[in-house]
């Protein structure tokens, strides 16, 4: 994200702004937004778990409910043992993507207005997230699958297909998330620009649902890929 400028839709569409930098590096508004999201998530978790109670209420109860739901999804795919090891990372992935999707729905945000935007409406961001997934796939494969993973992936006549699959997976993850969030931002911008305020609200409500679905799908696929790498013999 510091090496090349991201592929925005153009300044005329209210694209994320370059806040500082030169020809070698830059800091854009969506990068700042991502850091703000990470800091806020960390603060919420710290505040919600400072005084843990046996019978939770308020923020602690909300956080425990979210964790239980996400943990259940990971357990269903990876099993209890692997869920304890990789679940926290995958759940953080989900929350980060979800908040990134939703921040574009807040007032004065979105691709159609200057200022902060949904980071996941930037292909550079979704490509980075997809790269983390595919790198994690190989790390987990070597750690858990070991020789079974090496034989399954490298020492097989299917090696060309495995390499093609390795290329298409991150492309699919990155383009799916980027395309849906970017398209949603553009459609909302057009609708709010040409229609009275209350008419685009049904599309706004759908965007709330789609933002959660996209975060869930991305995390679910990452979970499936990592389970496949850690349990090659089971496949």
From TrEMBL:
GO terms for biological process: proton motive force-driven plasma membrane ATP synthesis. GO terms for molecular function: proton-transporting ATP synthase activity, rotational mechanism. Keywords: ATP synthesis, Cell membrane, CF(0), Hydrogen ion transport, Ion transport, Membrane, Transmembrane, Transmembrane helix, Transport. Coiled coil: none annotated. One of its GO terms (cellular component) is proton-transporting ATP synthase complex. PROSITE patterns: ATPASE_A. It is a multi-pass membrane protein. The keyword Transmembrane helix applies. InterPro entries: ATP_syn_F0_a_bact/chloroplast (IPR045082), ATP_synth_F0_asu (IPR000568), ATP_synth_F0_asu_AS (IPR023011), F0_ATP_A_sf (IPR035908). The chain crosses the membrane at residues 32-49, 86-103, 123-143, 177-198, 204-226. PANTHER family: ATP SYNTHASE SUBUNIT A, CHLOROPLASTIC. Belongs to the ATPase A chain family. Key component of the proton channel; it plays a direct role in the translocation of protons across the membrane. NCBIfam families: ATP_synt_6_or_A. This is ATP synthase subunit a. It comes from Peptococcus niger. The gene is atpB.
